[in-house]
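I have been asked to look over a protein record a colleague put together. The record follows directly below this note.
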Amino acid sequence: MKHALVTGGSGGIGSAICRQLAAEGCHVLIHAHRGVDAAQTLADDITAQGGSAQVLVFDVTDATAVADALQPLLEHTPIQILVNNAGIHDDAVFPGMRAEQWHRVIDVSLNGFFNVTQPLMMPMIRSRWGRIINVSSIAALTGNRGQVNYSAAKGALNSATKSLAQEVASRGITVNAVAPGIIETSMSESAFSAEDIARMVPMKRAGTPGEVADLVGFLVSTRAAYITGQIISINGGII
């Protein structure tokens, strides 16, 4: 049974990905920082349905905390599937953006990627099989007003995806990013009205977390073994 770690696993997209990976036979490590209760509820639900899951609690911006949580697991088995889904918004137009808003968003999305991914690499390389999926955003591809920090973080994540893919391709490890557009989550519900979505999205609807999870499920499967270094959009035709 392959071990799969999903950071930010208690959120809308993260929980759908966790369910998808559990359904495909993985032991799912559901990461949470503040959403611990939601993560435990998700793990209990997956287990009740015959799957395998456990909760890991740490702050992705704290390298020591990440290592303390992951090293005991890596002593027994490699984590061969990693979905870097943790990320935050702290929006403001750039002239009025505070330094802490900039650093906080970069810290979670980009430094969090390093803190979690780097310790997993050598065990994954030794196993000669792995899948790394970075959850990016349409904002990294098109930009978005009020999200210079978020766009910068996710854009850098896209570039890291392409470079890491080249480094580990010969070891049977693929590295890809998925870039969602407007997805039905609590965050998007407060940001976009139905009229906004109908105007912006050619398909006239928001995507679902399950649709993102289906894409991730394909990319981590053996069917996607020749796909690596790609930024794959899922946005209903916005771009």
Summary: Strands lie at 3-6, 27-32, 52-57, 79-84, 130-135, 173-180, 231-234. The two ends are 38 Å apart (CA to CA).
